[in-house]
Amino acid sequence: MTEAPVLQVDGLVKHFPVTRGLIRHKVIGMVRAVEDVSFDIARGETLALVGESGCGKSTTGRLVLRLMNPTAGSVRFKGQEIAGLDKQALRRLRRHMQIIFQDPYASLNPRMTVGEILTEPMTVHEIGSEAEREARVRELLAVVGLLPEHARRYPHQFSGGQRQRIGIARALAVNPDLIVCDEPVSALDVSIQAQIVNLLQNLQRQFGLSYLFIAHDLAVVKHISDRVAVMYLGKLVEIASKRDLYDKPLHPYTQALLSAIPRPDPRVRKKRMLLAGDVPSPLAPPPGCRFNTRCPFAQERCRKEEPVLREAGKGHRVACHFYETIPAPVIAAADGPAAGKFAERLAAFETAKQARAGV
């Protein structure tokens, strides 16, 4: 019998009203930050949520934890709907759902020692006696690679990577089942990023944790994720296993993101998929497919009809009307015979498109 997912998100929506006036606020529009987002996370699994800045990734993470209330949709943790929970029930639930914040310099209270920071969540949830909490602090510091004497220091006495380790230890303090990692390595140096990612993976294996890993760096995501969900302007455009998504991206936006990953081998040349224009405003998203204003393969149907996230095989889902006919980018050696094949396939696609249009 298959174990039920730890987290189930169905049709999640979040709109922020835009108002005018100082005294009598008049709503003049809605920022559609998150629109009809659905996914699930199994026990011990890492689902990466990727996309450009401002696409709604962090808002989705906060909605999952109910740090803000959704406009519509359902979030179920271990089968329990959390939208209607009162404050007491929500506080009890938060022991099992924690977050690692993006900025290790802003997420820790500068007036508290590390020991006090790690003890606070245990005190809030009434876990253990004072002696047991002190022992737990020493254990947590050892788990994240810090020393017991660090408990007496303040956050300003640590480097960025050490501060993020403290943030991870704080999230682990109450033995959670799910951790939302909100770009936990984006503010760190590359060498420190690798240390933190390896630490998160080791902790996952040790404690059976589930992660919602929010990021925009697809190189980091490839290292840590089991599945990847790609978000654009508040909507999921593709979701698949890591191998399927990186080997065979189906949505043009995913292809563009992957083509932007730097290649360390100078002998490898690839045709980059450059997107035209800027990301539209979530205050007035374009009709039809939200990506149609920047997509090199957009057709008339894309401008009128919004695509649904449909099955493309083996759990690979994509929101694109024409993903079957879109040419996949080709990576080739600089002197290889495959160089330039992407341009040829793109020209063939344009020819077929004109033929369908009767040109």
CATH architecture of the largest domain, by name, is 3-Layer(aba) Sandwich
Strand content: 15-25%
Low-confidence runs: 331-343
- Number of helical runs? 11
Question: How many strand segments?
Answer: 14
Largest sheet: 8 strands, mixed
Question: What structural class do the secondary elements suggest?
Answer: alpha/beta
Along the chain, the helix and strand elements come as: EEEHEEHEHHHEHEHEEHHEHEEEH
Mean pLDDT: 87
Determine and state the CATH class of the largest domain: Alpha Beta
* CATH homologous superfamily placement of the largest domain: P-loop containing nucleotide triphosphate hydrolases
CATH topology of the largest domain, by name, is Rossmann fold
Shape annotation: globular
Give, in spatial order, the strands making up the sheet with the most strands. 6-7-8-3-9-10-13-12
The termini sit apart by 55 Å
Query: For the CA atoms, what is the radius of gyration?
Result: 23 Å
* Helical coverage, percent range: 25-40%
Q: What is the number of independent domains?
A: 2
